[in-house]
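User: I'm putting together a teaching handout on how sequence relates to shape, and I'd like one worked example. Could you take SDR family oxidoreductase from Oxynema aestuarii AP17, show the sequence you're using, and then write out its predicted structure as tokens right after it?

Assistant: Happy to. First the sequence, then the structure tokens directly below it.
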Amino acid sequence: MKIAIVGCGYVGQAIARYWRQYGHLVTVTTTTPQRVEELQSLADRVLVVKGNDPTAIGTALEGQELVLLSLGARQRDAYRETYLETARTLSPLLSGETSVKQVIYTGSYAVYGDRQGQWVDENTPVAPANENGEILAETERVLLAGDRQDLAVCILRLGGIYGPGREIAKIFRPLAGTTRPGTGREVSNWIHLDDIVAALEFARAHRLRGVYNLVNDTPLEQKELLDRLCELHNLEPISWDPTATERRPYNARVSNRKLIEAGFRCRYPQTRLDLIP
């Protein structure tokens, strides 16, 4: 299969390596010319592409059967350009005759907003808590509007990503011994890089369409996660100050039941806190 991966960061590199290993012809894009040489070992073709450039995006799509949008904004003020403008550029290119039969987009469970730790699933209406969440929700709407019989559009709403080089201990070690605002009751949802790769392959192989939450089986409250982490790695405990408040833009217990019912299983159903950076 001919596959174009638009955006080749942490996730994009991992799935490019996997798909190419299994014989697929992989095109990857980057916005940074200096990364071309680095990415050439992962792909059959590397293109420098801005998401809001229809000519460049069109070139990346030529002859492709699957398009994966694996986008990542380097700064919080770049969400609109990175996510929404890319989706708006891509959509009209897929509206007519095209070789592309499937689009997969790795989004975020942030679109659910602050649900005060309550369970949510794919039937829960989105309720973004800030502008960037709204941008992510609108990106989904733009892409899903292009779904049709001969073009399957699949949205994977990812949890927090961890894995090699992004171990949970590495992410949270700087917080050891500090005092955090609130009670730590906010819920976090995580997904290991290996499970993201496996889910992307599952979505490709089964030609999934629609929205699926891609998180592991066990959401954890922040306090529980950090207490376990500090104990496991002999780190100074983290304290909490309930008199100070910090409203998180997403606080929901995310269900992955729909993806499980489709036949997918996480290799890491529980968040691995024992991985050492």
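A couple of points you could highlight for students: The longest strand covers residues 102-108. The CA atoms of residues 1 and 23 lie 8 Å apart.
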